[in-house]
Design goal:
Layout lengths: L15 E2 L18 E4 L14 E4 L3 H15 L11 H7 L4 H11 L10 H14 L13 H5 L13
Antiparallel strand pairs: 1-3, 2-3
């Protein structure tokens, strides 16, 4: 695989939900289990009644480990992990969804066999990229489901006002 072009950087998803994780603003239910919410700490100067947004974790540590192994086996011949984190990726992916990233990965990677990996391997690698970018792990895996992936915007953790 040749090095990734600047048009294909990767950034992963964070979903901000006002109020608590069970609020009416939560994303619609999907066939897979709902992601675990991790409350972000409120700022010391915030009014007591102000609710901080919840940062949704939607991959597991084990899934990120599988993604790391797949990255080492399939991707590392052509790519460095440093290519998949930081502002260059947020600039391209911050307004898009995880489904967009998933489809781009499947359409273009690996270079010698685009779409040739199992669907689960693509989302496992996405989980690893999430981890590389500081997104928290939770108790539910990121599924290879277009509808679920389409519900997650690729919002960088540094744009989370609760952090």
């Amino acid at each position: 695989m040749p090095p990734m072009s600047s048009r294909m950087p990767f950034v992963i998803v964070v979903l901000l939900i006002p109020g608590c994780a069970g609020s009416p603003e939560a994303p619609p239910a999907s066939p897979s289990p709902e992601p675990a919410a991790v409350e972000t700490p409120a700022a010391d100067d915030a009014p007591p009644a102000a609710a901080s947004p919840a940062l949704v974790a939607f991959y597991t540590e084990e899934q990120a480990r599988r993604g790391q192994r797949a990255f080492r086996q399939v991707c590392s011949d052509c790519h460095y992990t440093s290519e998949f984190k930081g502002p260059v990726f947020t600039d391209v992916w911050a307004r898009r969804t995880a489904r967009d990233l998933y489809r781009e990965l499947r359409r273009t990677m690996p270079d010698d066999n685009p779409g040739g990996l199992p669907r689960q391997t693509y989302v496992d690698v996405m989980a690893y990229i999430l981890e590389l970018n500081g997104y928290p792990a939770g108790s539910d895996e990121l599924p290879p489901d277009d509808q679920v992936l389409g519900s997650f915007r690729l919002t960088p953790p540094e744009q989370d006002p609760g952090r």
